[in-house]
Structure formats: C-alpha cells, structure tokens
Design brief:
The structure is a single chain. This protein has 272 residues and is α/β, with parallel strands linked by helices. It has two domains: 81 residues, Alpha-Beta Plaits; 149 residues, Rossmann fold (3-Layer(aba) Sandwich). Helix content is 32%, strand content 32%. The chain is built from nine helices and 14 strands. The strands form three sheets. It has a seven-stranded mixed sheet with strand order 10-9-8-11-12-14-13. The chain has a four-stranded antiparallel sheet with strand order 2-3-1-4, covered by helices on one side. Strand 5 and strand 6 form a beta hairpin. The longest helix has 13 residues.
Length: 272
C-alpha cells in the first residue's frame, strides 16, 4: 500500500446533475466513490487529473451548461477501499436483493450481484430503488423490455431475472462496457446492447424504462413513446420533484398508472 492517495471532490451547483455525473465518473474510475447531495468524492492511489479532464470534456459536449468545480488533495493513506466496501451493504428493493460480491446471495429473493463504484449504481439511490420496485410490478415473463440509459445495467438485469427479453442502450460507451460485464457477472444474457439512445430501437416494446434526468426525458419524449407499444408500460425516473410538472406536461397523452416518490426523486409509470 502506498503512503498517500489522491482525493478529488467534484462539486455541482445544481444537484439534479449529481447522479448523471457520478454515473459517468463511476465508469471511468474503478475505485470507490462517495456521493453527496451536491458533490462526488473520488479516491485513488493514482493521479485523478484524468477524471477532471474527462468530466470537463463531457460537459463540453453538453454545451457547457453544468456548473462544476474541483478540489484535488493528496492525503495520508488509510485502508479506504476496505472502509468503502464496509459502507456498501446489500439492499432489498421490492422482489430484488442487490448485493456486492463480498456478500452472499439471499434465499427467497431475486438476487442481482453488482460491484458498485458508488451507491447510485447499486440500488441505493432513490431513482434506482423506485425503478426496481416498479419493474417487480410491471415486468412479466416473456415481455420485450428496453432499458434506455442503462448505466450499470441493473434495471435490465432485474427485468431479465423476471424472464423478460431485454435490450439496453446508453450514450456513454463505458456504461455499455460496464453493463456487458455486469450481465456476465450474473450469468445472464441480453438480446441487444448498443451505444446510443431510444431512437435506434427497432420495433415496439412491452416495457420501456428510462431512468435518466428530467431534461433528457423531455428531449427524447417522442422516441420513448414510439418505442412503447399500445397498451405497453413506460417507466420514467430520475425526475427531481421540482421538475416533475415539466415532464408530466409532455406525457399527458399517456395514462398515469402510478407515481412513486422517494426523497426528492419521482418515478412515473405510464400506460400507452
């Protein structure tokens, strides 16, 4: 073990983008992350300057609309990886038991193994938790399911464990790679996995899941509706309650079956 490690604190002015940036960072930094209301902390024995550069590049592709600041520190080493692992515990979300590989599976539950780089990708984040609950209710054996913005692949995995035929996509190529690895870790197979979004989907789906952020849900509204078959289910999440009305306005032509709120995050379940 080295005598010191690097700690990068990423602070965002608007907290709604924290999970979006954290998911991106989780896929490029293999070490433990810590997520707060308006910040992300990355720790590694290696220099983390590349993380700052990658995030700045991402923000640039989005038109520089996200206000962000960085603080890099070098600290005396502790066994922070063990500390991090001890802080990540399994979680039950509806029918599912999400657990890291250093825990055992749980009898009587649908088990999904995820080794998270941060709590967001493991079901601990409110949006993922609510989506897992919704999947347990609305996804059935034989359904054709599309997971848009799949990230770690946890929602697609949950659908697959219920016997669905799953397709997944993400605009981040590293997320696509992470998703592929997590399916392999669980011994599961998907039908299709691609870099991109719902506009590349072929045909219609019984269930479409989009756990992204409100602004993206607004931007791809027509793609999500088109991909959902008549009588099908559309699960939208990643919506801060203060942005909910903006999303609801664009999806008013669908039937709202259920609204879930956990903390300040809202999940909406629609029927087309």
């Amino acid at each position: 073990m080295q005598s010191s490690y690097f700690e990068l604190t990423i602070t965002l002015k608007e907290e709604e983008f924290v999970e979006f940036i954290a998911d991106f960072v989780a896929n490029i930094a293999g070490d433990g992350l810590e997520i707060g209301r308006n910040h992300i902390i990355v720790r590694s024995e290696n220099d983390l300057a590349y993380v700052e550069e990658a995030v700045n590049s991402l923000i640039g592709t989005l038109g520089g609309t996200i206000e962000i600041s960085y603080k890099m520190e070098q600290k005396a080493n502790q066994d922070w990886i063990a500390t991090y692992q001890n802080s990540i515990e399994p979680i039950e979300a509806g029918k599912f038991y999400i657990y890291p590989s250093w825990y055992e599976a749980k009898e009587g539950k649908i088990n999904i193994k995820i080794d998270p780089a941060l709590a967001f990708g493991s079901g601990h984040h409110a949006t993922t938790f609510s989506c897992l609950e919704a999947i347990g209710t609305y996804v059935h054996h034989g359904d054709r399911v599309l997971d848009v913005g799949c990230g770690s692949g946890i929602l697609g995995l949950a659908s697959r464990k219920l016997g669905a035929k799953v397709e997944l996509c993400d605009t981040d190529p590293i997320s696509v790679d992470s998703c592929e690895k997590n399916f392999a870790l669980n011994g599961e197979e998907y039908e299709e996995l691609w870099e991109g979004s719902a506009n590349q989907a072929i045909g219609e789906y019984d269930v479409v899941i989009a756990n992204i952020i409100a602004d993206v849900l607004k931007f791809i509204v027509h793609d999500l509706k088109r991909a959902t078959k008549k009588g099908g289910i559309l699960i939208l999440s990643g919506i801060l309650d203060k942005k909910e009305e903006q999303v609801v306005e664009l999806y008013r032509d669908l039937e709202l079956l259920e609204r879930k709120q956990k903390d300040e995050w809202v999940t909406l379940v629609y029927k087309k």
